[in-house]
Amino acid sequence: MITERTVKDTELDKVLDIIRISALSPEGRDRITPSLVVTDRAVIEKRARRIEEYMNLLSGSAPDPFPMISDIFSYTESTHADLDGEAVYRAGEFLHSYITMLVFLEKEDEIHEEDRNLSSEILSSLDMEGNVYEDHPRLLPLIRKRDEIKAERMRFSSRYISEHRSIVQQTEAMFRNERVVIPLRSDQKRASGCYISGASASGNTLFGEPPELMTLNNDAVIAEERIRAEKARILHELSDAVRNLCPVLKKMLDEVIDFDFHYSFALWARKVKAAHPREGQTLSLVAARHPLLGSKAVPITITLPEDVKALVLSGANAGGKTVTMKTIALLSLLNQICGYIPADSHSVLPIFSSVFTDIGDGQSILDAASTFSSHMKNIAYITRKADSSSLVLLDELGSGTDPEEGAALSRAILSYFAKHSALTCITSHYSQVKSFAYSEDGMMNASMEFDERSGMPTYRVLEGIPGDSHAVATAIRMKLPKEITDAASMELRGGDATAGRIIKALISKERALDRKITELSLMQRSEERSRRELEEKTRELEKKENELRREGVKEINDYLLQTRKELEKLVMDVRTGKLTSEKTRRVKSYIKSVEEKKAEESALVKEEEEIPADNLPILPGEDVICGVAKTRGKVLAVGKNTVTVSLENGLRMDIKRSMVRHAPREEKKARVEYGVSGKRAEYTIDLRGLTLEEAIKKVEDQIEAALLSSLPSFSIIHGYGDGILSRGIHEYLKKRKEVKDYRFARPEDGGMGKTYVELF
């Protein structure tokens, strides 16, 4: 269920007006209305899949616009008269556009040649006004015949005037009522032998037709009539063809309307970079943007826990509370129309049975209703209509009356809707309401961030934290007299600003926690990457070592084979008395040593999986050899089956006990250490408050320091603002060859106010 009030409050009608502009048919344009909101998840998913399909096809040829043809159906059903030429032309144009639609959808195999031929025949026969073209093949012979008669008529008239100069009034023939006449002198009526068809206004000139000219005039009239008749026959045949095709055209129109809906939303979704949100029972909007704000929209990120049924949104005036609430409502409605919203694809939206809003001033002079009365009347209506699957959004709840009574009423209304609706979102400045949301289960506070340094809202949603109204700061920004704002500030210093100080402290702690989480995440990712790299290098070394050993065994085998051949020759020499027994014994001893070497190398090749551990106990602090790669390290801790080792490359790993043995003592060697002076790499750099030039310089220094320190990734906090810092930094990162990837942070880690950077 969606009310007119909800459509107006959320500005859904304005968004749909923008989408309607892209519609290709008048009938399709008329179908894009708020009534498209549905509650069936299967229908939404089906629409979303179609829109995604069309978005993937938008790079190809675009279909042509469709003319209106629904009036043709009512006309053919009410009368058997021929359609006028303009209606027939529209039918032909519709068929042509339908064919371009099938081409766009890559369904050329569904195009019927009969439809293509009829469309081609209509469009090649008629102009846009429905008139048959003069160069129609069926008209050409008739037109040539008519032109020949007219030419003969003009030649005869010229000869007659030339031969009868004494009786003609003028030297040229004249046209009257589509007939050529000879201008005669009035006193030559009987002498001319012509049929007199009229006279001039003065009576001095008579208009006559000699018998031969009369025949030519009649022939010309008949020729014109034949052309008109042929045009009528052509139009009649085309009209009959369209009439017979009306049942098919009706089905086509239904397809076109359905296509137009998905096509219009596909164009809109691509333009606003919309995505299909995930299915879920809770609400989570990631980088959500109000579509009417265009490039001015500040992305909103807000995630509600599953048990939250009511959200209290507070913060400074003009800080974005109402826009945030409108965005939640509008995107919920758009999701239930087309399955696409201008937000990140990680967003989650439930399906609401109805959406009710009370946003803006509903004061009515005609109804003698005050602002407060108007709000209460609308809220009373919502209480009667809302159900357990409804979304309810109430702006400035309880305002317009006594603050104490308004706060009490707000708490009661909030509590009621938390029990009787799926989700309720309100905005409020009452501290009692914010405290109530803290103390009640199923409720949550959120606020719009306010930059104390600049005195301006950032429009970022802070979850779990109530917002200070910043009334004095807003008054200063609106250029209220300093005498007034100073007096108000003095009042607040008297003790009424406790909540504001608590809020500031909470925000400060949240930011510190964000930084800690980011640093921990980067360290974790760095260690994981180093671990994977070490494992990969270890595998490569083991493989290479084994290959070298196999090559060594092969060389020994080859050598042994050659030696055996020599031995056989020696034995033969012994038998023939050519070799002494002492030499033979030494040769056999040498061959035996070679075979032992081969066996030793072969045994080494088989030691790929594990290395034998020594039987001595391993204690923390001892130097050890780890793995087949024989990496040195120092024992940090000893478990039941594993040993925690700090390797010489700086990594800390848990390794199987069977892969660890005591390291032999190393002779002390002279060691040369190399140092590089310069700035130290940081896991996170904060660029807020810097100019773009200063920020890029700091990013450049950070990249160089990170490369020297082998830091694979770091994060940049640039804030939201107007996007100048984030866009400029991203442009700079795009040009740096050392940068492997960069992207905005996760929503819970700063979202579009922070950027992750990965280096090669």
Notable features of this structure?
760 residues, alpha/beta, MutS, DNA mismatch repair protein, Chain A, domain 3, Rossmann fold, 6-stranded mixed β-sheet, 5-stranded antiparallel β-sheet, 19 helices, 50% helix, extended
Q: Would you kindly provide a written description of the structure presented here, covering whatever features stand out?
A:
With 760 residues, this protein is of the alpha/beta class. The protein has five domains: 38-272, MutS, DNA mismatch repair protein, Chain A, domain 3 (Orthogonal Bundle); 278-486, Rossmann fold (3-Layer(aba) Sandwich), CATH 3.40.50.300; 497-599; 609-667, SH3 type barrels (Roll); 684-759, 2-Layer Sandwich (Ribosomal Protein S8, Chain: A, domain 1), CATH 3.30.1370. The protein contains 19 helices and 23 strands.
In summary, what is this structure?
With 760 residues, the chain is an alpha/beta fold.
Strand content: 15-25%
> In DSSP terms, counting alpha (H) and pi (I) runs of 4 or more, how many helices?
19
Strand line-up in the sheet with most strands: 10-11-12-8-13-14
Helix content: 40-55%
Question: What is the molecular shape?
Answer: extended
What's the number of domains? 5
Return the structural class: alpha/beta
CATH class of the largest domain: Mainly Alpha
Rg on CA atoms, Å: 46 Å
Task: Assign the CATH architecture of the largest domain.
Answer: Orthogonal Bundle
**Ends: how far apart?**
53 Å
**Biggest sheet, open or closed, and with what strands and sense?**
6 strands, mixed
Number of beta-strand segments: 23
User: Would you give the CATH topology of the largest domain?
Assistant: MutS, DNA mismatch repair protein, Chain A, domain 3
Q: How would you state the average pLDDT, rounded?
A: 82
Low-pLDDT stretches are: 362-369, 494-498, 605-611, 668-677
